[in-house]
Structure formats: C-alpha cells, structure tokens
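Quick log. Single chain, no ligands specified.
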Amino acid sequence: MKNTARKNIIAQGFSLIEMLVVIAVIGVIAAIAIPSISGINDAAAKGKDQRNAQNVVSVFQAGQAAGVTWNTTSAEAAFDDVVAGKKRHWSI
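-> predicted structure:
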C-alpha cells in the first residue's frame, strides 16, 4: 500500500520530456505568429497610405472646383505621388 501512495505523489509533477514538448509547441506557435503580426502592421500602413492618397485626391478636386492652380496634371498624378511617398505638389 505504501508503494502506491509514493507513486501517486511522484506522478503529480511534470517530467522533463513533458516540459520540453510544451516548450517546443510554444516555439512553433511563436514562429508561425510572428510573421503574421508583421504582415498585419504592413497592411495597416498600406491602408493608411491609401486613405491619405484619397484625401489628397479629394483636396485636389475641391481645389480645382474652387479655381486653384495645381503643379500636377491630374488628381491621379497627385494620388500616385502620395502613394509613392513624394512631396506635395500643390501651391495656392
């Protein structure tokens, strides 16, 4: 009867193999998740750039309607410049 009681006490902890398996699984999950997180950041930055470019097009069109002279030839050119990261090309 004493032998059974000792085995139950010993069996309550984790073995080294079990701990290594858990650490390996966590490592695999982290290796999968980290590139996905950087992809999310890139997508968010791209979306922000697109919204900024759309705002520039709106300003360009509103300025044209108000009679402002632009250095670019069209709203599409202004949009392309913003997406490409070029400086603003308008003057009042």
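The chain has a mean pLDDT of 76.
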